[in-house]
């Protein structure tokens, strides 16, 4: 199946996908701050570059998009219909890296939490300071 977008348009679309400070990350951070938690964001010195680090609690939070990180049994974790082999390889590598990072951080004594994008979809209106 051919891509419905030109290579230039597809490249432009993909370049707009953010890697940090996404709306769901900001939402989680605002909620944590409103509850009195203080954190560091995108700590590059830790394996996997956790989105949120709570040093006081020796805890890290990864905020995962369901599509990119393949949330099991989630309708948002669909596979594109074009270049299936490319996407499957990319998704498999993401899942493998996520698992490795969680295991190594846990072995290093960190508490690891994962927040999935779809978990926030239903409660966004109830969280304070929602964008």
Structure, described:
The protein is an alpha+beta fold and 131 residues long. The protein has one domain: 3-Layer(aba) Sandwich (Endonuclease, Chain A). It contains 5 helices and 4 strands. Strands 1-2-3-4 form a 4-stranded mixed beta sheet, with helices on both faces. The longest helix has 24 residues. The radius of gyration is 16 Å and the shape is globular. 12% of the residues are buried.
Enumerate the spans where pLDDT stays under 50 for 5 or more consecutive residues. Answer: none
What is the alpha-carbon Rg in Å?
A: 16 Å
With strands numbered from the N-terminus, the spatial order across the biggest sheet is 1-2-3-4
Question: Which architecture per CATH?
Answer: 3-Layer(aba) Sandwich
User: How many alpha or pi helices?
Assistant: 5
In terms of structural class, how would the helical and strand content be classed? alpha+beta
**How much of the residues is beta strand, in percent?**
5-15%
Helix-strand sequence:
HHEEEHHEH
* Major sheet summary line: 4 strands, mixed
CATH topology heading: Endonuclease, Chain A
Full CATH superfamily name: VSR Endonuclease
β-strand number: 4
Q: Give the % helix.
A: 40-55%
Mean pLDDT level: 85
The first-to-last residue Cα distance is 37 Å
Indicate the CATH class. Answer: Alpha Beta
* Total domain count: 1
Indicate the overall shape.
Answer: globular
